Model the fold of this input.
Amino acid sequence: MKKLLLLVFSVVLSVYSVIALSNVNSRVVQIGISTSGTFSDYEDFLIKTISDLQGALTSRYSLRVMFLNDEELAKEIKENRLDLVIAPSSFARTYILQGARDIASLDHENSTNTNRAESSVFLVDGERTKATTLQEMQGKTVVTSKEFGLSGLASLLSTIAEQLKVKPDNFFKDIIYVPANLSHVLRTLKEGKADLAVVPACSLERYSQQTTDDTGWLRILLPRQDESLSCMHSAAPFPGITVISMPSLSPYESKTITTALLGMDETDGMTWGVATDFSAIDRILQNLRNGPWQKDFSQTITEFAKAYWKWFAAAAAFILLLILHSIRSEFIVRKRTEELSKALEQQKLLHKEANLANRRYEKLQKISVIGQMSSLFAHELRQPLNAINCYANGLRRFLKNPEKAKAFIDKGIEGIEAEAERASAIVEQVRNYAKNKSSRQNQQDLKEILQRSIADFQTTSVGDMPVHFMDHGGDHVIRGEEFELELIFTNLLRNAAQAQSHLKSAVAWMEVSNVGPYVQIEIWDKGPALSEEKIKEISLIGDSTKAEGMGLGLSIIRTLVQAHSGEIRFSKSEQGGLKVTILLPLITSKNNQQEEQNAQNNKSSRRRSFR
Done:
C-alpha cells in the first residue's frame, strides 16, 4: 500500500512539474531521496515533507523528486544533478568536500537528541552461543542487509576497529546479505547460518509490535544505555535521516526550505530538527576509510611520488651516501684487521719466545734451588743414616742375648727399613727435581702431613723437644707435593729445636686453622728474643737465626711455600722467640678431595705414628 502511495505521489509531482515547466520563469528543484536504511519506517513522513516543501515554495518553483538507492544517489551527487538530498547523515559528511551541507535532521519519539537519533544493534542466538564480546565473534559469520546502510555492517566494522584496534576487513569468516526485512535477518540467525546479526536500532522494537513472532531467544551483544535513545542498541548513536543542500541551491532557496522543514508539525512522532554533532559519523567513515578519508588511504604511488619526490630524492641520496660510507668503512676495517692480524701474529711470536725464555729461567731457577737444597738434603740424608747406624749398633748388642731381645730386634729391623725408605724418598725427590717431575697438583690432607712431620722430627732429632699441636677444626685440604710440605714443617721444627739448644726444657707449638680461603699454620718457640731489625732481615732475605747458619734453610722454605701459591711471614712470638706463619690456599670441593685422597691411599707411602 505504501509503495502504491509513493508511486501515485511521484506521478502527481511529475504532472505538477510538467505544468510548472510551461512557465518559462519556473525553477525546477531536483530532489534525491535515499530508499536505503530504514526508509520504509519514515516513508509517510517523507512524502508529507515533500508536499510541505512544494507548498512553501512559490509558484515559480517546481519539485522533481527521484527515489534512488545509495549507488544511484551517489552517482547523481557526483554529477551535480541534485539540488536537495534526503538521505542518511553519512551522505552529508561523505560529500562535504563537494559542498554538501546539512540543514535539518530527523527527530523521532524514541530519541530526545537529534545528534543521537540512530544506531545499530548486534544480535546473537542466546540459546546457541554464550559469547559476550566482539573478540569471540572473530572468524564467525554475520548476517545483515546492504540497505541498512550506516545502521548495518558499517557501524559494526567501525566498532570493531575502535574497540579491538584491528583492521576489520577480514575479521569475519563470511558476510551474508539478505533483503532489508527483519524477518529474513532473524530467520538466517535462527537457522544457524549466521552467528551474529546487525540491524538498525529501534527496528526490533517495531518488529515486535507489528508481529507475534517470538524474539525471546535473541540476546543483545554489547548492550548500551543512552538516555537520548530509548531503543536497544550496541554502537555509538549518530544523527539520522538528514536533509542536505547542494551548492546549486541558492541561499534563498536553502533558507525557505530550512524554514519550512523546521516549521513542520510533528507527524507520527516524527519531526525535523537541527543536528550539531556529526563526530560519530566522522569516526565511522574514518575507521572504514570512506568519505573525506578515502583519498588519504587510496592515493596511488604516482600521486604520492609526485607530492614527495624531493623527499624521495633526499632519502635516495642519503642511502647512497650510507652505501659509500659502508664501502669505505669496510675497506678501512679490512685494512685495520690485516694490520691487527699481523700485530697479533707478532705478539704470538713474542709470547712464544717469552715462554721459551721463562722455561729456561725456570730451569735455571730449579738448578739454583737444587744447589741451595743440596746441603739441606745432605743434612737430611745424614739423619736417616745416623738412625740406621744407631739401630745397627743396638741390634749388635741385643744379638748377644737373642732370646730376650727378639721384640727389640724386630723393632730395630722395622726402624732400619723405615729410615732406608725415607733416605730413598729423599734421593728420589732430588731426581724428580732434576727431571722436573715434581707435581704440586695432588690433593693433600695438611693435618696428616703436619702430624707426620712432627713424628719424623721427634724420631730423627737429638733430645726430646715436645711439640704442642693444636687444630681448630675444619677440613685442611690443599694442593701440593707431599715430600716438599713435610720438608717445610720438619725443618721449621728443627730450626725451633736448634734455637733452644741452650735451654734445658725446649718446647715448640704448632697451630693450624682455616682463615677464609686459606689454611693458616703457625709455629713458634721460646728461643732467644729477636730484635725488630733481625725480624726484618729474616723477612726480606731469609737470614738465619743461628750464628753459624748460612740462611739457606729459610730461603729454601720460602721458595717451597711460594711454589705452593702460599705466603710466609715472620714475627716475634709472645714467648720471645721466632714465630713463623704460613698461609696456603684451601680446596673447597670435598668431592674432589675424597677422590684424590682415595687415589693417594692406593700409593705405597710410609705411615708413622705420632709420638
Observations:
- The chain has 18 helices and 20 strands.
- The chain has a mean pLDDT of 81.
- The domain at 439-601 is CATH 3.30.565.10 (Heat Shock Protein 90).
